[in-house]
Amino acid sequence: QVFVCGDDMEAKQKVMDIVCALGLTPLDQGSLLAAQEIENYPLQLFPMWKFPIFLSLGLTAFFFFYCLTLDIIYPYVYEKKDFSFFIAISIPNKICPILALILLALVYLPGVLAAIIQLYRGTKYRRFPDWLDKWMLCRKQLGLVALAFASVHVLYTLVIPIRSFVRWRISSSTVSQALNNKTEPLNTTNAWISDSYLALGILGFFLFVLLGITSLPSVSNNVNWREFRFVQVR
């Protein structure tokens, strides 16, 4: 994108035509009063990433302390059980999918609010409130942060079988069955539930990655609106 501003509409249109001829996308920023703000853009450090990052950090801290209290502090105080090792994998593996879903919901929520405002006003040609406008402009960044949390959740899930706690629990169950001379039969219902859960998780993550890839400007510029909407709806 190339930002263009000016008080002479004819001259500004000529500049925008030159920008289009160069294969770039002109973006009308209004009058020359916006020139100082545009010139300061190169000095800004990730301006559209501040809100998504601060929001994700705040939500991470909130859910971390909630899970810390529920899974570690409460059992230690009332049951005298030390589950402090949950901080390394179990708690992050709970936080990551929650944040991924919340941030993904925040990607589409401003579009719903914008539609409600347009219906209430009876027109789509009035400017949205500043808070909603800024929220809508950082939707791609929110989506990419959500994809990052989902990817971390996948990695944490893959290492679960090699955890010491999980291997101890499996060996303890095996020893218990051997001492009791009794083998628990396979519960096919639970097996179906477990496999379906994992299969849907894999499919959901694949669609999440596809959504994130098509949201990248370099990719979205190569697909038409119908193709982009098809991916978004799915």
UniProtKB/TrEMBL annotation:
Q: Where in the cell is it found?
A: Membrane
Native species? Chloroceryle aenea
Write out the transmembrane intervals.
Answer: 53-78, 98-120, 141-162, 197-219
The gene is: Steap4
- UniProt protein name: STEA4 Metalloreductase
- What sequence ranges are listed for the domain Ferric oxidoreductase? 98-232
Instruction: Identify its membrane topology class.
Output: Multi-pass membrane protein
**Family, similarity comment:** Belongs to the STEAP family.
An annotated Gene Ontology molecular function? ferric-chelate reductase (NADPH) activity
